[in-house]
Amino acid sequence: MEILFQICLVISSFLSFSHCLDNGLALSPPMGWLAWQRFRCNTDCVNDPKHCISERLFMEMADLLVSEGYAKAGYNLISLDDCWLDKERGSDGRLKPDPFRFPSGIPALADYIHSRGLRFGIYEDYGNYTCAGYPGILNNMKLDAETFAEWQVDYVKLDGCYSFPSQMDKGYPEFGYFLNRTGRSMMYSCSWPFYQLVTKMEPDYEAISKTCNLWRNFEDIQDSWQSVTAIIDYYGDNQDTLIPLAGPGHWNDPDMLIIGNFGLSYEQSRAQMCMWAIMASPLLMSVDLRTIRPEFKAILLNTEIIAVNQDPLGVQGRRVYKKQGIEIWTKPVLPKSGKKYSWAVVVLNRRVDGTPSQVTVPLRELGLDSEDGYHARELNEHKDIGIILPDQAIQVDVNPSGVVMLKCTIIRVPPFSP
Ligand code: GLA
């Protein structure tokens, strides 16, 4: 890996800044906690010290990530988002945090988070300013990448406000190059395709997936079911473009999990969790871990669903059926038997009639055609369904704006083929 990385640096110094993300990171979709969706740009630490963007908030969330079992389940990142910066750079030209809200400084916060066994993420913007108007990295890319490395940053979210989308094909790889050049492995989260799509440009996804570990393609998630379903529709409608891009090291990012906040019902929260899992999406919670209700916490900590998301094959799921408000999504997962896979299946009910919809899931039609059959299990309720052969079907009752998520584990009859 080290040698590859060196070669990559040499080549990239000849070939401008292209195509050399080889940081060995994000082999499964990143998991962690991001501030933005829940805490936004609340800078009023005088009147609202518990919720403002401050070192205290991130330290408390880091503590809870560990003490409440999230870290053990895989959520191992704590990331700043917008509004951590001071309005001006320091006299040395370096970025610095707001001194009142981050009095100990960023290295101390990074230390605190690392000492709890977690990764530390930071937010910046490719343009002149961040979306909330703090200094961006334009014209300071090398210095800022070096500063992040000195601060022991593990994850960089690079937004794209106040910049020209037409310059991003050069700018995002350039910053990626400077990150690589520091020698510190930092996960690179890009907003590059989103800003280009907004201005009707066609993103160079080949370059994007070679430069970034994850990237946003669609609008910001908001605290509503309507927002969640708009994202799901975007991913379904554009799946032939998006699915081939995803894989170990590089992921489409449909934005944060809003489970445990104000806008989603219990069923809708299960639906977001299962859909993000089957879409092999980063699982980045944005919720107040101090006050989250136990039933929402349990959804986020469902290890069987997380395992589908984190499956080593890293294949993004596909919408294979959509009719009258019912959708079926499938994703191949391990274990394999010969050339055939196990499968995760989500049945999503978008209907709002007040009674569950009975849905028949015919295995062979969905591509589950291993003649020895599958062990089927429902992952929200942790219930075994039994052995199902390809010509059989599974009947499920799916609650309004809810989901059923099945794992169909292939039955391997000895002798196993390689
Ligand atoms: C953009 C991003 C969000 C968030 C805000 C911060 O809208 O897409 O995820 O980072 O900026 O201002």
From TrEMBL:
Protein localization: Lysosome
Signal peptide start-end: 1-20
Keywords tagged on the record: Disulfide bond, Glycoprotein, Glycosidase, Hydrolase, Lipid metabolism, Lysosome, Signal
Pfam family, one: Melibiase_2_C
GO CC, alphabetical: lysosome; membrane
EC primary class: hydrolase
Stored Gene3D superfamilies: Aldolase class I (3.20.20.70), Golgi alpha-mannosidase II (2.60.40.1180)
Entry-linked InterPro entries: Aldolase_TIM, GH, Glyco_hydro_27, Glyco_hydro_b, Melibiase/NAGA_C
Name listed for the protein in its UniProt record: Alpha-galactosidase
